[in-house]
Amino acid sequence: MREGVLRDKYKNKDVLINFTKKQINNIEKYGYPDVKELYIPHLSLIRFGKDIPSVLEKKFRWDIQSSVVDKIGIFEMGDYGTCIRLVKEFELGNR
Questions:
Q1: What distances in angstroms separate CA 74 from CA 4, 30, 90, one per listed residue?
Q2: What is the model's pTM?
Q3: For residue 76, what are the CA distances in angstroms to 16, 53, 82, 89?
Q4: At 71, which helix (H) or strand (E)?
Q5: Half-sphere exposure of 24 (CA within 13 A, CB side)
Q6: Which tens digits make up the pLDDT trace of 21-77?
Q7: How do the domains of the chain map onto residue ranges?
Q8: Which pLDDT does position 51 carry in this prediction?
Q9: First vs last Cα of the chain: how many Å apart?
Q10: What integer pLDDT is reported at residue 20 of this predicted model?
């Protein structure tokens, strides 16, 4: 789907030494290291600024019938809202 487009940050071969062979294959094929079986599903809880009233007016649909949350992580936020560094992780209850 990416048709050979590689993000600039992955063009530097020195950066690729930080990834596994599977991750490098995913980068070359899909543009990101952690896709398919390497993807860890997550739910991002975010902080809204001044636009909170307009956000709350929207109707959200949750199609997932069941899920299990076993831990919560607090991350340092980078550009575009990405999580760039794990600050603290909390395990939730017993399963």
A1: 34, 27, 8
A2: 0.46
A3: 23, 25, 8, 12
A4: strand 71-77
A5: 11
A6: 999 988 888 888 888 888 877 776 666 666 666 766 776 666 777 777 888 888 888
A7: 8-91
A8: 67
A9: 38
A10: 93
